[in-house]
Amino acid sequence: MKKSVVNVLVFGALVAVGFSCSNAEMEGRLARLEGRVAELEAGKARSGPASSAATASPTIQQTALEEEVPSGPAPVFTWAEENYDFGTITEGEIAEHVFKFTNTGEAPLIISNASASCGCTVPVWPKEPIPVGGTGEIQVKFNSSNKPGVQNKTVSITANTNPKLSRLNIKAVVSPKAGAADGPVKK
């Protein structure tokens, strides 16, 4: 039941955004909402109206959840890089980048979810636990169709780490396709 309510909320947010990824403010809101949904699906969020986390602002909620420290040994992401700039690409290109990481913690690392701030960005992550000292990759594909201009996208990674949420960022300047009209065609 809880998951279906969360899915309805996410769908409502997507409808409100209008499936548009060009507005940076809306993308930020959607990224925060996706992060919150991932936390709820992971069962780490407090529920009920009496909970102080339920009535706090999203920033306070996220901070409270990130500060929950698990007992015992924990895995740790050590990223080769957390930001990647594709530079200038042509509209319609699908740009790909692989973010590499090592588990430098003291327990196996399990990624439970990876979600992007926009449907134009798709992450692929390892579903198997990464052992201590092991390495992994998260592949990110960005579809630049109908996305001219500067694009900044975020991939939120939910794992059994502390903090539970990690973020990867990609950037691109998308040049309009050659021959694309800038406005109405004059005859």
UniProtKB/TrEMBL annotation:
Origin: domain of life: Bacteria
Keywords: Signal
One Pfam family linked to the record: DUF1573
Statement: the UniProt record of this protein carries the keyword ATP-binding: no
Annotated PANTHER family: LIPOPROTEIN-RELATED, SIGNAL PEPTIDE PROTEIN
Organism of origin: Imperialibacter roseus
Signal peptide start-end: 1-24
InterPro entries cross-referenced by the UniProt entry: DUF1573, Ig-like_fold
Protein name listed in UniProt: DUF1573 domain-containing protein
Tagged with keyword Cell cycle: no
Database matches in PROSITE patterns: PROKAR_LIPOPROTEIN
